[in-house]
Amino acid sequence: MKRDKNFKISVSCEINGKSIPYPVYYPDPHDNECVSAGDTFYHITYKGNTKTFLVPTGLRYDGASIPRPLWVTIGQPFNPDFIRAAFIHDKWYKELIKTVSRAYADEVFYHILLADGVTRFRAYKMYLAVSTFGRFCWDQK
């Protein structure tokens, strides 16, 4: 996937009316998930279209879906380099009533990775993984 030179993406988060750089979670000591610490709004502007959604307090999240053997080359599930992209992507994949297409979710995932400083090579590998294997999760809903 090529990055469009005219492409602009903006992702912002806010909690209690204050802008925050990343989602706020605390670990659940009983499993490998984290729980959202407060109502968080995400505002995503992509290709001139803004989508806003709420992540409620208490939402459980298991991080990026990266198989353990790939943690060495890609990174661990809660790596701050891609936590926003993975969270937003997973949120769209888990919706019972889809608000975006799978292709849109995968494309936005890729561009948020780039916007958050992930190298183009690494972002492309992650994009290929979600676009190739994500259909199994998408089709379950």
Helices and strands in order:
Elements: E1 9-15, E2 18-20, E3 25-27, E4 34-36, E5 40-46, E6 49-55, E7 60-61, H1 83-94, H2 102-115, H3 120-138
Antiparallel strand pairs: 1-2, 1-5, 3-4, 4-7, 5-6
Biggest sheet strand line-up: 2-1-5-6
Helix content bin: 25-40%
Query: Main β-sheet, in a few words?
Result: 4 strands, antiparallel
Spatial shape: globular
Percentage of β-strand residues: 15-25%
**Alpha carbon gyration radius:** 15 Å
Number of helices: 3
Helix-strand category: alpha+beta
Total beta strand runs: 7
Question: What number of domains?
Answer: 1
Please report the distance between the alpha carbons of the first and last residues: 26 Å
Indicate the multimeric state. single chain
Q: Which residues form runs of ≥5 with pLDDT under 50? A: none
Task: Describe the overall structure.
It is a single chain. This protein has 141 residues and is an alpha+beta fold. The protein is built from three helices and seven strands, in the order βββββββααα. The protein has helices spanning 83-94, 102-115, 120-138, and strands spanning 9-15, 18-20, 25-27, 34-36, 40-46, 49-55, 60-61. The chain is globular.
